[in-house]
Amino acid sequence: MIFNNQYIQERIKKSEKLREIGINPYPNKIQKGTPATQFLAENQDLLSIEDEIKIDQSREYTLTGRIKLMRVMGKASFANIEDASGVAQLYFSRDDLVEGFYNDIVKKLFEVGDIIQAKGYPFVTQTGEITLHCIELTLVTKAISPLPEKFHGLQDQELRYRQRYLDMIMNSEVKKTFVMRSRIVSLVRRFFEDHHFLEVETPMMHPIPGGANARPFITHHNALDVERYLRIAPELYLKRLIVGGMEAVFEINRNFRNEGMDHTHNPEFTMIEFYWAYRRYDDLMRITEALFDYLFDTIGLERKLPYGELEIDFTTPFAKVPYLQSITTIGGVAEEIATDKIKAISYLKANGVEVDANLSLGYIQAELFDTFVESKLTNPTYITDFPIDISPLARRSDENPNIAERFELFIAGKEIANGFSELNDPIDQYERFKAQVDTKDATGDDEAMHMDIDYVKALSYGMTPTAGEGIGIDRLVMMLTNQHSIRDVLLFPAMKPELPKEELLPIIDAEMICKKCGHDMIEDLKPAKKGKGMFCIDVNACKERATNK
RNA sequence: GACUCAUUAGCUCAGCUGGUAGAGCAAUUCACUUUUAAUGAAUGGGCCCAUGGUUCGAAUCCAUGAUGAGUCACCA
Questions:
Q1: Which parts of A154-280 fold into alpha helices (H)?
Q2: A199 contacts A193 by C-beta, under 8 angstroms
Q3: How confident is the model over A432-460, as pLDDT tens digits?
Q4: What pTM was computed for the model?
Q5: CB A7 under 7 Å to nucleic chain B
Q6: Residues 364-423 of A near strand B (Cβ < 7 Å)?
Q7: Helix, strand, or coil here: A250?
Q8: How many CB atoms lie within 10 A of CB A442?
Q9: What is the predicted pLDDT for the residue at A2?
Q10: Tens digit of pLDDT for each residue in A351-369?
């Protein structure tokens, strides 16, 4: 049982006692009181009263919040309560409350973790803290689980992620990070709206995964009996909207990639993608700089921000370095090596990187870039002029057919944004998809793109010359809040299941097998539409298994 | 996916070269009417992550596994 812990049992007993004496531990009609910080701000003037007793009984306040600390000293007590705004101190004594309430209820049945409402008037304590002198106390919500230790708080990284609400209660700076995240997302949205972009919502479940190189999550639509892919990028849908006549659109939402997790990767992450008709990739670089200026100015951030050991200078305009040049000047790879596939492969091998010789020069250069350049890009830097063959959706440069009108923005060695002039030649697009499919066949690269005929068809009706860009919101927030793990900017980061084996096994034995064929791979099963039990998603495979039995 | 580290009371942590468990906070009881992690006294609280192995004896040593963190690899 989840509540069989001794501490929880103690608290449940208190909850029952409250009910016995007619106090509902979970009352409904409670109004939120004055925010704690507002209470403190409005009574600052008490501090300057010359009198020995700084008090104003004519002022009346109601505060609501969670008890974080309680100091009981016989017939009087102090408590710190916290609400969304901050912490305020309460004072209550036996003689100021209804007779018996202090001794029998406050001291015995109220405790740290409970949410209470306090009515009273402000005064200043001997140690100079503005405090609410309570004349009435009401229980708002009983907490039957105790809070973690009051001084050290919740330190266990795992518990902090799994029980984020506890992390937020105990570690106030966590809340600050997420308030900042919300602010950034809101400002990004406002920035694009102010620039006359239209916010849209495109499908999260795609019949063909596209718009990026990544392995998708697969799910099943029962009614249509088809596979669906959680989107890896909204790109191809947003560009269909440009074809349809929307000339500036953006979408801020989740993308899903079925890949490894680490401190910069979560299986679901947030991106903004925006598409802008009659613009080119250099317009994107300018508007991205304008976005950073807007964020920094509106939030009031210094242009030089610490990031761990680093200091990052966000002063615009950002540096621009062409792809090949970055490999030679920043990566320190000789040009004759960087432009020769055979030499580049052996150079990589000498540095411990194995690459598939079937790959084209562009892919090999991408390896050179990833190995020797990326981690060195600390200050915001645009890497421009990408090899065309690693840019299947970007427009070819008019001047040089081997490079794409594309850039990526790097900060602190991480890719933050990716933008390009969009390819709008439907026949060229078809050929590029085909080349990707061939790569997939030749190298088994299951992240290469699929052929999306419907998208090519959309292009065939004519898409205006368009520029489009994606910015990783999680990483952006990491940079601006000096957080080094994506999990610290995600409210609920992805975690492995925590149930120990012993608890999982009985469930699997009893429930998690197909009722028809006895198949026991959980990922192949779906719950019965009516009644209990599980059945195979793939009906044909199920029949086959059943007959083989 | 590879390597390194961690996992002991509700929480934060000790626990030596193997001898069956300790503190602070929290809880319970008592004292205390201006405290700031309040204080003082007493009491209760443990499948030492799991499973094997070595051993007379394992929280401690070894193996395997689980979860988390960090480095690297892949990706945004």
A1: 157-162, 164-170, 172-194, 235-243
A2: yes
A3: 888 888 877 776 666 677 889 999 999 99
A4: 0.86
A5: yes
A6: 367, 370-371, 414-415, 418
A7: strand
A8: 12
A9: 72
A10: 877 787 878 888 888 888 9
Helices then strands, each counted (H, E), chain A: 17, 20
Hey, is A343 helix, strand or coil? helix
Length of chain A counted residue by residue: 549
The Cβ of residue A406 has, within 10 Å, a number of other Cβ atoms equal to 28
**Residue type for position A15:** S
Q: How far is the CA of A72 from the C1' of B31 (A)?
A: 12
Residue A189 identity (one-letter amino acid) = R
Pure H helices in A105-202? 107-109, 157-162, 164-170, 172-194
- Tokens 């044909």 belong to A540
What are the CA-CA distances from residue A305 to residues A175, A209, A302, A476, A490 (Å)?
20, 37, 6, 13, 21
* A225 Cβ neighbours under 8 A, 6+ residues apart: none
CA A118 to chain centre: 36
Q: A154-210 pLDDT, tens per residue?
A: 999 989 999 999 999 999 889 999 999 999 999 999 999 999 999 999 999 999 988
Q: Which two tokens stand for residue A453?
A: 């005929």
Q: What are phi and psi of A522, to 5 degrees?
A: -55, -40
A217 contacts A256 by C-beta, under 8 angstroms = yes
What residues in chain A have per-residue pLDDT under 50? 500-512, 526-533, 549
A248, A263, A504, A538 from A516: Cα distances, Å: 52, 42, 22, 12
Predicted pLDDT of residue A530 = 32
Question: What is the 3-state secondary structure of A492-528?
Answer: CCCCCCCCCHHHHHHHHHHCCCECCCCCCCHHHEEEC
The b-or-e profile of A227-246 (16+ CB within 10 A means b, else e) is ebbbbbbbbbbbbbbbbeee
User: Do residues A110 and A98 touch, judged by C-beta distance below 8 A?
Assistant: no
What is the residue type of A110? F
Q: How far apart are CA A15 and CA A7, in angstroms?
A: 13
Is the C-beta atom of A266 closer than 7 angstroms to strand B? yes
Positions on chain B within 7 A of a protein C-beta: 1, 10-13, 24-29, 31-39, 44-45, 49-50, 65-76
Closest protein CA to C1' of nucleotide B70, residue? A263
CA distance A517 to A509: 14
Mean pLDDT of chain A: 88
Residue A143 CB coordination number (10 Å):
18
- Strand B proximal residues, A:8-37, Cβ < 7 Å: 10, 14
CA of A498 to C1' of B11 (A): 19
- pLDDT tens, A36-88? 999 999 999 999 988 878 999 999 999 999 999 999 999 999 999 999 999 99
